[in-house]
């Protein structure tokens, strides 16, 4: 863990929190700073390029690419709520975060996580329609419907964690102000509260079960139909092409849902800081890095659009 500074020079007050972080030694801190800075730049530039290319090219204004554009925007906000603060803590060795800064960080992180879960479900449905009902694709999945689904994902994402933020902001933290994590998250905050946290845990389970289970069920059912359709395709080349259109999405779904379920759909008594920090790294850092690559940078249409986009900028 990063060494916590709580002496007089650290400007720590009773309303502040101290975030443990990830590293113990200065050598690991500098190496970690370099790695996380590189990862953050890759996430920002990779997702920003995808967003700009799709926005600029009218030929890419189709449901699949509208979802990809929104996914890129979510990943940018997602990681920007965590990594800049983590980088600042590593380089300045000041792990202090204000009470409301902590609440806001938790809120934006949960908002984008919720929005991404719903967007991944919408993308699964889009792949289901494209593979299982290709002749009716334009009727079942229009551009307007895709934009509406993306808007719903953003709206629910911003609304869902508001209950968590309000309830947690009313808790008392008289026992400890040290958060054993690398950012402000729900479970670590509940662990250090000396108040009754049953209301927060209840809303965590209820909202998590409703949104996560619904999105997961839609994704699961979509892939059951997708796989059954692919199996029925007679040619091996046809099966390969059909599966290649959804394999990248399926990979991210498995990693994202798996880590979310492991972290949040369980009681706080089973919380293990070291293990959970590693799991949290998977969906806060690795998935936003992989999304531009596995979704778009291997896509021929994106490559062509990117080439045209760069040529227009240089001439």
Secondary structure blueprint with pairings:
Elements: E1 16-19, H1 26-56, H2 63-80, H3 83-92, E2 96-98, H4 99-132, H5 137-140, H6 143-159, H7 162-169, E3 178-179, H8 186-191, H9 198-232, H10 236-264, H11 273-297, H12 300-314
Parallel strand pairs: 1-3
Antiparallel strand pairs: 1-2
Helix pairs in contact: 1-2, 1-3, 1-11, 1-12, 2-4, 2-6, 2-11, 4-6, 4-7, 4-9, 4-10, 7-9, 9-10, 10-11
Radius of gyration: 21 Å
**CATH topology group:** Rhopdopsin 7-helix transmembrane proteins
Count of folded domains: 1
**Biggest sheet descriptor:** 3 strands, mixed
How many helices? The count is: 12
Could you give the distance between the termini? 49 Å
Instruction: List low-confidence stretches.
Output: 1-13
Strand content: under 5%
Which structural class do the helices and strands define?
mainly alpha
Mean pLDDT: 82
Give the full name of the CATH homologous superfamily.
Answer: Rhodopsin 7-helix transmembrane proteins
The CATH architecture term is Up-down Bundle
In total, how many beta strands? Answer: 3
Order of helices and strands: EHHHEHHHHEHHHHH
CATH class: Mainly Alpha
Widest sheet: strand order? 2-1-3
Q: Oligomeric state of the chains?
A: single chain
State the shape: globular
């Amino acid at each position: 863990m990063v060494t916590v500074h709580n002496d007089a020079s650290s400007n720590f007050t009773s309303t502040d929190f101290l975030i443990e972080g990830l590293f113990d030694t200065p050598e690991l801190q500098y190496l970690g700073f370099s790695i996380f800075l590189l990862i953050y730049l890759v996430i920002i530039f990779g997702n920003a390029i995808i967003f700009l290319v799709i926005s600029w090219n009218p030929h890419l204004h189709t449901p699949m690419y509208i979802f990809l554009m929104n996914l890129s925007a979510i990943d940018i906000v997602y990681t920007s709520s965590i990594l800049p603060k983590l980088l600042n803590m590593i380089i300045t060795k000041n792990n202090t975060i204000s009470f409301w800064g902590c609440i806001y960080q938790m809120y934006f992180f949960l908002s984008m996580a919720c929005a991404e879960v719903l967007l991944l479900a919408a993308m699964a449905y889009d792949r289901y329609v494209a593979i299982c009902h290709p002749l009716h694709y334009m009727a079942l999945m229009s551009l307007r419907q895709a934009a509406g689904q993306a808007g719903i994902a953003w709206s629910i994402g911003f609304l869902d964690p508001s209950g968590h933020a309000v309830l947690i902001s009313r808790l008392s933290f008289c026992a400890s102000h040290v958060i054993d994590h690398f950012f402000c998250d729900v479970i670590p905050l509940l662990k250090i509260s000396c108040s009754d946290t049953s209301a927060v845990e209840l809303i965590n389970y209820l909202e998590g079960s409703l949104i996560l289970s619904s999105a997961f069920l839609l994704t699961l059912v979509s892939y059951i139909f997708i796989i059954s359709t692919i199996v029925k395709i007679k040619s091996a080349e046809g099966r390969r092409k059909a599966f290649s259109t959804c394999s990248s999405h399926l990979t991210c779904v498995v990693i994202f849902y798996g880590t979310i379920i492991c972290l949040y759909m369980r009681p706080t008594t089973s919380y293990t800081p070291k293990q959970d920090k590693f799991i949290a790294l998977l969906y806060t850092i690795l998935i936003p890095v992989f999304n531009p690559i596995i979704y778009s940078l291997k896509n021929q249409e994106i490559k062509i659009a990117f080439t045209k986009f760069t040529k227009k900028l240089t001439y």
